[in-house]
Each structure stands twice: as structure tokens, then as C-alpha cells.
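Lab meeting prep.
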Amino acid sequence: MLNQAVIPFSDTTSNSQSIRADTLQPRVTYVISCHNHERYIESCVLSVLEQNYHNIELLCFDDGSRDRSASILRRLANDYGFFFKQTENRGFTATLNEALSLATGEFFCVLGSDDLALPGKTLRQASYLATHPESVGCTGAAQIIDENSHLVDKQPPAAEADFGFSDFFTGRGLPFVASSAMYRTRALRMIGGYNESIRLEDLYLALKLTEQGDTLHNLSEPLVKFRSHRKNTSKKLAYMYNAILETLANYESHPDYRRVVSSYSKRFYRRAMRTGDSTLAQAAFRNIRKCDFDLKLLRRMLKHWIFAKSANNESGRDRTTNASNRRPQNSRL
């Protein structure tokens, strides 16, 4: 059993980059939950501490890391005076619910422990929410970086607009990076916080926060650097598909439920075909309604069927050839 180590938040520190209260600004709570990210965690924390916004509360957790993440966080917490807690590996959403219970900020952000907050993120979002009480939160674009922090892509600029339940439910809404979001803490508590049985917490939150008519606002500019790990692409794709279905299952009684599941399944079927993931392609295919088949999809299916048949025939010939080569030379036919 891992002993819990807690370093409480302190408002007093001599470092000029410390977190300090400023009553002229709404307090913003940042949560960073780390698991085996020793390579990235310090730069992640510093990207929050170096924001041009003074009234920040930083809550950091190490969720059972087996590398040096916890010791790095403990050192930073001692140096800068923010809250740090080390626990067993209990899961991401369980940690977020504890953070939500501790948060004293009017606004609430979760930053991935391998991501970075861009300069000005906090001021931009807090200023927007402070002057737009009709929005329960706001998101933004992201710069995509690789394992070595090199810029590899950018989300295409999206229009600055409000998005509601129908947008997120049908998938027409902006697919935002979770680290870019800032929510009203009160709104998160009103929906009961995070559902610990749901793996895709950002889609779940977007649906729950907007199902009563509220909206999330998208800010068009990049707010974070999101780290994309290229390994296990097929595994991640299958995980995302299953997590989306798991989230949508909460709305089975919605009249558009079957249509929405079919629409998501078509998208993942195409992506699975592009990556050669036949298992995911078959799973997604079973959830596509017959009325949703179009000529483009049928052509893709035919191409996949021909390729699979050709591969099977080639594999069969290889097995026959190998068996023939292994036959003893003196065997009687």
C-alpha cells in the first residue's frame, strides 16, 4: 500500500514566478494528474506557473507512477508552494473528482501531464468566461507536438462559436483537445463531477454540461500544445471508438441515438480501413445502419474485401509452398 504524500498549497513564497492571489482576477484552478511522465512533467507544471495570470491554484497528483515523476513533482511543490499528492494508481477520473472537491477556483482546467499551456491561455479564457456568463466553459485550438516537443501539426483554425448538446451528440461539434478546456467549477459540481465509469471524460462532460441548453464556446486561437504519441495507433483508435459508444449509451433513449451511433461507426470504419485494422473495421461495420450505406462507403468495403481475399490467397500459397519445402525428399507419394 502506497503511503499518501501531500504537500499543501501555500500562498507565500519568495519566488517571483510563484502562484499568488490577486483579488482582481477570478481564481483559476489547474489540475495536473501524472502517471509515468517524468520526461514531460516539469515543463508541463512550469507552463502553468509561467502564465501571465496571478490568481491560479495548482493541484498536482501523481497517480502511482513507477518512474521519477513523483520526486520531480515533490521538488517543484516545495519550490513553488503548490498542492501535491501522491497516491496509488486509482484512475484518472477518480483523481479529477478529488481535485474538483478541493478546488477553490471559480474556473477549472485539467492539463495533461505531457501537454503544455501556451502563454496567455489562462488570461484569455478567464477573461472570456468572466464577461460571458451564458457559457459554461470555453475551449480552443491546439498545436500538435511529438515526443521530442517538435511541432508536427496544427488543428485547423475553427470559427469562434458556441456549441450545444446537438453539436457534440451528433459529432458535428468541434473535436476539442481536453487540455484546452476551461469550465465553470460550479457547473461541473452541478452535474455531479466526473463519471468514473466513463473513459472519454471530455465528450461526457461536453454532453452533460450542454444537455440542459447551455453552451461551450470555442476560441479560435491555439491555447495548448498537445503531445501526440505515434505508438499503438490502432489500439488508441479502438479505445476511442469503444469509449465513444460507451458514452453515447447514456443517451439510448434519445430519438437520434441509432443514427448517431451509425454515423460515428462510419467514420471509424473508414479510419480503420486506412490503418489496416480489420478487427476495428468489422466492429464498426456491424453498427452501421443499412440506410447509411453510400456509394463511397461501398467502394471502400469492396476494395477492403478484394485486398483481404488476395492476402488470404497469398498466405495460403505461402503455407502450401512451405509445406512442400518441408516434405522429406525420400517420402513416398
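Slide two material, second protein:
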Amino acid sequence: MASFQLSLPSSSTSQILSSRLRYKVVRCGSERQALFRRIAPVYDNLSDLLSLGAKMGDHVLDLCCGSGDLAFLLSEKVGSSGKHSLAKSCFMNIKWVEGDALDLPFSDGYFDAITMGYGLRNVVNKRRAMKEILRVLKAGSRVSILDFNKSNEPLTALLMEGVFDNFVIPAATGYGLAEKYRYFKSSIREFLTGERLEKLALQIGFSSARHYEIIGGLMGNLVAKKWVEGDALDLPFSDGYFDAITMGYGLRNVVNKRRAMKEILRVLKAGSRVSILDFNKSNEPLTALLMEGVFDNFVIPAAIGYGLAEKYRYFKSSIRDHWLSSINDL
């Protein structure tokens, strides 16, 4: 496995390594390690990622950061002293760590955002690396993974081969790096497609994942999000935190609706709105009868074929038991 670096703000370093306090240097492949050390000055020009909305005070991890170009960019977003000159040897809010991407030395849920540029393709166990990313990412936060794209489109794949054979490798020859870029070409050929990356992220526990093809499909950016899990009756947010709140088909299933509404009110900013969408329990007999008929004659029979009849019978009863849309019920 290749050794790599991690970058993050150093404002609270003592809190970071609580449960996994170790800086474990993993050496592999001296050849691969030497490859990235030799190629760093040339390779830096390729790396310019989005910062995932990183803001002042956030803790951001740049995984497999190489020579640190993205880390410097992120440092400007989360640092406390404004922009710095890249001429400085190191930004003061960055901590450089060499460790193992398969066993990150950070506590669970520490980072507000994680980026990885041109690294996942070179990790031996991609599933385990993604699980580690998920573990150290805060709930509600995102990871952005940029790399060369392995396209399903024959024309794009052919174009990628042509770019390497006719431009990249010949240009690299002048720097004595031809063999190194041939490795890049083969590593792209063996990489996961965007569709497989999305499936991998969802399988290991991310709640959403989307792969974006950029630069005509030559590059790809996987963005995955870790959702917040909690109790609607005891929301894990501070008072007045949200500018808006939505709830779709959820209030009907909450045991204590009054308490849930009070929690929504508590975490909503003054002057803001909440929108709650659900099936309607109508005061109109004809509408109520129509709803019953739709479930009895269409929804439940159709659900039987999928083995979901009991679940949709629950839906029907939950609507019947749902409160009326009246302010008096609140």
C-alpha cells in the first residue's frame, strides 16, 4: 500500500486522535511511493477540486493529498487568518499526517467534509477505504472523490486512450516520466466505472451517491452524503438552527405528533417556515370514501404482487388514524 498524507486544521489536534491514536506509516511499494514523489511537481497542475462548501472553522480531511495543492485551497476556506500566499512553506492551520487509508487515525464523525483527489484508484481495498471515510465523516456531511473516469462509453474510453498515447505519455517522456504515466493509464483501465462507484458508496452505508462526469467524461467526481440519524422527538440540533424544514410522509407515523411539532418549532429560526406533506384525512365523506376505494381496489391489490399488501394496509389505517388538518389538533 502506498503511504499518503492527510491534511486538516490543527486548531484542535488533541481532540482528533482520541480513539485511534496512532500515526502508522504503511510502506509498499517503494516503486509506487517513488512514483508519486517524482511526479508531484508535474501532477499538481491537474488537481483543482471543489471544496464542498467548506467554511470557517470546519475540520476538513484531504485524503491521499499528495503534494497538498487541494489542502492549501481548503486551508483558505476553513482557516482563521484569511488567505495566505502559496509561497509559504506550510499554512498554519494544516496538520500533515502520514498514515493508512484503510485504518484512519481519527475518531468517528470528526470531519465536516472529506476530499480525495486521484487517490481511490490507487488504494488496494477500495471498499474498506470508503468505509473508513464514512466512519470519520460527520452525519449530514459529504465526501468528494475526484479521479480519472472509467467510462462506459466506447468513444470516451477510446478518447482517453488516445489522449494518453498521443499527448500525455509523449509529453511525460521529456520529464523522464513515461513509464509512470503508463501506470496511470493501466490504473484507469482497471478502475471502477461511475455506476459501480455509486453502488459501492450506497452498499457501505452512504445515504446518497452521485457520480458526475466532467471534462467530456475524461474525469469523474463522486459526491456521497452521510445522512443524520436521530429521533424526531428529540432532534440533535441547537435551537433556531434551520432556515426551513420539510417533512414528507413522516408526521403520520410519529407516535407523539405534538412533541414532534414542538421539536420542529424549537430548531426552526424565527420567521422561517416548515412544510409538512402527507396523505390527507379529509372531513369530507366523499373524499374519505374515495381514498378508501383507491386503497382497497387499486393500491393493495397491486401491492400483493410485490409481497407488500400488509404494509399498504398499514398505510391505509395510518391515514384513517391520522389527525385532521386543524390547528386545534396542535
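Talking points for slide two:
The chain has three domains: 4-225, 230-278, 281-330.
The first strand starts at residue 4 and ends at 8.
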